Amino acid sequence: MKANKQDGSTVLPQNHKDMNVKSIDLMNKMRLFGMAEAFRTSLGSTLAENMTPDAFLSMLLNSEWDYRYTQMVNRLTKQAGFRYNAYMEDIDYDTPRNLNRNQLERLATLEFVRAGQDVFITGPTGTGKSTLAEALAHRACENGMRTYYASAPKLMNKLKGAKAKGTYDADMKKIEKSALLVLDDLFILGLDSKERAILLDIIEDRHGRKSMIITSQIPVDGWYDAIGDPTIADAIIDRIAHTAHRIELTGESMRTRKK
Questions:
Q1: What is the pTM of this model?
Q2: What is the C-alpha R_g of the chain?
Q3: Do residue 19 and residue 141 come from a single domain?
């Protein structure tokens, strides 16, 4: 028989305790960690007694779902390699910088990712380009989409090194697997001939199939000259410029405003 302590918790007979320990052990062996923790917590309260069996089962299943969802988001966020902790809920719409809230909220539905479209975010330094890009990319992780964040200059250096070491194809496959690629600060440094070829490879791999968010201090109209080689510039611009969503930020640095 079950007895209640004065604090409201339940005292179980030893055979019930043994059964519950085995149940928790089985849940853990089956990797139902969220369910196991919820069940363990319920044993120290009157929660189960105040719920119907189907409601209690629903609570356990929801706990498992919440656990798995949190683990998924944490894993995708870690794999993405974000530089900042930027989220859509924290976007500043009050500072004047030509940011259209309706446009950003439409992008936050991630239809552009599902359609394999790109987003260009341009503007002077400090206007929040990287923050917007990462907030959208975090939203992608929250929706189970594999994301790859990279500082464009660092990625170019890394891939040039990969070519020298013979690991270029493997590194490119890692990038290609991502549903969303963030190239941050593209063209902040001039591209050499190897970097132009690498950028073209990346865009060729993703064109019409998978999405990119590109941030740059240089307006899109200046990208042709920034690429440096007319033939490669034609190939790149032709593939990405016509159907991309554009956010063109203006104004002074937000960091200066805050100071």
A1: 0.81
A2: 25
A3: no
Closest CA relative to residue 174, chosen from 139, 210, 121: 210
Domain total for the chain? Answer: 2
The rounded distance, in Å, linking the Cα atoms of 169 and 174 is 9
- Buried-exposed string 224-249: b where 16+ CB fall within 10 A, e elsewhere: eebbeeeebbebbeebbeeebbebeb
Q: Which pair of tokens denotes residue 60?
A: 């356990």
Q: Distance between CA atoms of 3 and 256, rounded to whole angstroms?
A: 65
Tell me how far CA of residue 58 lies from CA of 23, 40, 49, 55, 144, in angstroms: 17, 15, 14, 5, 23
For 135-161, the pLDDT digits (tens) are 999 999 999 999 999 999 999 999 999
Structure tokens at 246: 């554009």
Q: How far apart are CA 188 and CA 4, in angstroms?
A: 68
Provide the residue range defining the domain that includes 20. Answer: 3-79
Do 148 and 233 have their domain in common?
yes
The three-state (H, E, C) secondary structure of 24-47, written as one string: HHHHHHCCCHHHHHHHHHHHCCCC
